[in-house]
Design brief:
This protein has 110 residues and is an alpha+beta fold. The protein has a single domain, classed as Winged helix-like DNA-binding domain superfamily/Winged helix DNA-binding domain (Arc Repressor Mutant, subunit A, Orthogonal Bundle), CATH 1.10.10. It is built from three helices and seven strands, in the order ββββαβααββ. The strands form two sheets. It has a four-stranded antiparallel β-sheet, with helices on one face. A three-stranded antiparallel β-sheet has the order 5-7-6. A hairpin with a 4-residue loop joins strand 2 and strand 3. The longest helix has 13 residues. The N and C termini lie far apart (33 Å). The model has no long low-confidence stretch (mean pLDDT 89).
Length: 110
């Protein structure tokens, strides 16, 4: 996962310090496991994009195509709880997940 020359990722009150692997929510540190951290960075880097489960698994876990696993769902659930992303980290029906743009209101279900 390439971050270029960026040293900090920001999403609302969440600050990810790439050089130290620190995650802060409203200036308070939050401990994330290695894969939670990688998933958060990937989702922030792709804010606003609907990402397929396979795309996330391939780019974060380096899983081979068509792997059937629930690990992504568990990590998404954990990030929602730890970082208060219940309204922002949304499930995209039959696609995967999207980290909604900050201040974007929930879209109506189709």
């Amino acid at each position: 996962m390439s971050q270029g020359n960026q040293t900090v990722l920001m999403y609302g009150p969440i600050r990810v310090e790439l050089s130290t692997h620190r995650v802060l929510v409203q200036s308070s540190p939050v401990h994330l496991a290695k894969m939670e951290y990688r998933l958060l960075c990937y989702m922030i880097q792709h804010t606003g994009q609907a990402l397929s489960r396979q795309e996330i698994l391939s780019n974060v876990w380096h899983s081979p195509p068509n792997v059937k696993t629930r690990t992504l769902d568990m990590h998404i659930s954990t990030l929602r709880k730890k970082l208060g992303l219940c309204d922002s980290l949304e499930t995209v029906f039959q696609i995967g997940y999207r980290l909604r743009l900050p201040n974007q209101k929930e879209e109506s279900q189709r």
